[in-house]
Design goal:
alpha+beta, 5-stranded antiparallel β-sheet, 3-stranded antiparallel β-sheet, 8 strands, 22% helix, globular, binds nickel (II) ion
Length: 154
């Protein structure tokens, strides 16, 4: 249990393509536990490993229905679009307008390496695509239609 430092999007770790997770061992579990603590402390909905400087393909998310751990995630299918006001723990205080899929079918592995598939909608779909982007070195500002001024956020 440890809080890790969340890097900002000025850090080069946020702009690198991450490598797959190969070992589902205690070191990975420690990392996942630390990420959960870090996400909770930061009061966020999603956190990808490169945001704490670990260039491996995994993220966690919790949009209010419990913590999901997604290792080596892959988006299999998307449907629809939604307009999102989006931010990122690596870009504190900054928000932008972005279109994301309304529905995302995601395949990933759990902490034991077991494959699963989930269908996510709304905020969960937005979050999953945002976090998958992080694993390819893409931040939301790379995709945003426009950033919002502080007085637009009310
Ligand atoms: Ni982010």
């Amino acid at each position: 249990m440890a809080i890790r430092k969340i890097l900002t999007d000025k850090d080069e770790a946020l702009h690198k393509v991450c490598r797959p997770v190969e070992k589902f061992d205690e070191r990975l579990w420690q990392l996942l536990d630390d990420m959960a603590d870090t996400l909770q402390k930061a009061d966020g909905v999603g956190l990808a490993a490169p945001q704490i400087g670990v260039l491996r393909r995994l993220f966690i998310m919790d949009v209010g229905d419990g913590l999901k751990e997604c290792i080596n995630p892959k988006i299999l299918e998307t449907k629809g679009t939604q307009e999102c006001v989006e931010g990122c723990l690596s870009s504190p205080g900054e928000y932008g307008l972005i279109h994301r899929p309304e529905i995302v079918k995601l395949q990933a592995q759990n902490r034991d390496g077991k494959f699963f598939i989930v269908t996510l909608e709304g905020l969960a779909a937005e979050c999953a695509e945002h976090e998958c982007d992080h694993l390819d070195g893409i931040v939301f500002k790379d995709k945003v239609e426009r950033m919002l001024a502080p007085d637009e956020l009310k």
